[in-house]
Amino acid sequence: xxxxxxxxxxxxxxxxxxxxxxxxxxxxxxxxxxxxxxxxxxxxxxxxxxxxxxxxxxxxxxxxxxxxxxxxxxxxxxxxxxxxxxxxxxxxxxxxxxxxxxxxxxxxxxxxxxxxxxxxxxxxxxxxxxxxxxxxxxxxxxxxxxxxxxxxxxxxxxxxxxxxxxxxxxxxxxxxxxxx
Length: 180
Fold this sequence. Notes:
Blueprint: E1 2-6, E2 15-20, E3 24-30, E4 37-42, E5 47-52, E6 57-62, H1 85-92, E7 98-107, E8 110-118, E9 124-130, E10 135-141, E11 144-149, E12 168-169, H2 172-177
Parallel strand pairs: 6-12
Antiparallel strand pairs: 1-2, 1-11, 2-3, 3-4, 4-5, 5-6, 7-8, 8-9, 9-10, 10-11
């Protein structure tokens, strides 16, 4: 688990709690500008669950679809930290863009490998992937920057990656049919 701290001036001070298990990632939004909630990514099922506690509801989408999915690129889990570019290419499914290993570096006092990435649209970013976690712990780019702080390694409770009991699935189709 860790705190994802945004270092952009427009969102300075906003943070998100992240929990990672073998095949799942949970993001919990925090801060005054954001509504409380969580997003759970499941790489086995290729599904995303958006949990809305105020409504006691959740929304389910395929990974890469639905609100805010374009921002999740920076949470690539690398299979090979020393050669993460093929993982980036596979994950983004871009026909263009480039990825280059810059070299060994340190981010937040942790051993990392630094990568320079340019999207197919020409936007550049730099990502530091933690050698032990095989996960980005710092990023800087035109679309945002941030870093992982308060990193704690260890097993995470399975309940963090499940829909809470009593929550109803949000059905956009039924909602739209009810407005006629």
